[in-house]
Every structure is written in structure tokens, then in C-alpha cells.
């Protein structure tokens, strides 16, 4: 299963993605808004978990590759995260720093929003990030999300965190017609 956008291919993780994914999750610059960079062993566990989750439920992080060169550029996908004490479906995205500023994260995130609504039938998707992570906030906005709230995140150094969300338009129409 693959998702194709104008410039990207998003596909489920494979074990052989370890080196590429570690180049992102193990990089202190890329992970500066996280509590810390991950070890190689932790990245291997993340990939294995995503493979299992995707096989069982059809969602998880996807490997993101350049459609024309085949180069691994990052990850993007839907996971369940605890956001301000609530379990939410979250669109997450991380792009290799040499590809920052090219609009790849919003392109991948928009594809995940469409996948979540059209293929998985989800009603709501969120993204959350430190309040001062302006690039990530902009990515959420470009994916159609709007600011919902802020909270102190105990899972990430108790920093002020912003939450963006988007609701399935089909679901909103259904709610409106019931209310009429």
C-alpha cells in the first residue's frame, strides 16, 4: 500500500528503513523540540511497532520518499497520542533537515489527513507541538488544521504545547443535517 502525492511516496515502514529513520530520529537538530534524540535501538523498536500497528489497524507512521529520486526524506503518519489527557489520532511528521523548507511536511501531512478521513473514516485528527515550534505549527495549518488549545505537556518537559485539529467535513455535514 502506498500513498502518492505530487512529489512524494508514503509507504509503510520496512525493517530496512532503520538507517534512514535513525538519521532523523537520532539527529539532535531534528529532534530539538522533543525531550531528546532517540538511540538506534529505540528507532528499531519504533519501526517494529509501526509495522505491527499498520498490519493490525491500517494506520501508523509511513516512510516518506521522494517520488522521483526514491530518496528517504522523512516520516509522516497517524498514531494515537495522549494529548492533554485524551487519546487522540495525531498526524505527526518529521523531515530530514537537508529537506527542510521545501514544503514536504505539509504535502505529506495533507495526504495523511485525506487518508485518515477517506480510508480510515476518522472524525477528527490532531497535531501537537511545542508552542515555539513555528515550522510545525505552519505545517499543521497548511494541512488544514486550526489552533484548538494550549496546555503544559508533562510528556515533554512540561513545556507549553499547542494543539491543532481538523474535523472530517463529511462528519460536520452529517452533524449539521441531524441538528436541522
Automatic annotation (TrEMBL):
Residues 8-170 form the N-acetyltransferase domain. It holds the Pfam family Acetyltransf_3. It comes from the Bacteria. Transmembrane segments: none annotated. PROSITE patterns: GNAT (PS51186). InterPro entries: Acyl_CoA_acyltransferase (IPR016181), GNAT_dom (IPR000182), N-acetyltransferase (IPR051531). GO terms for molecular function: acyltransferase activity, transferring groups other than amino-acyl groups. This is GNAT family N-acetyltransferase. It comes from Rubellicoccus peritrichatus.
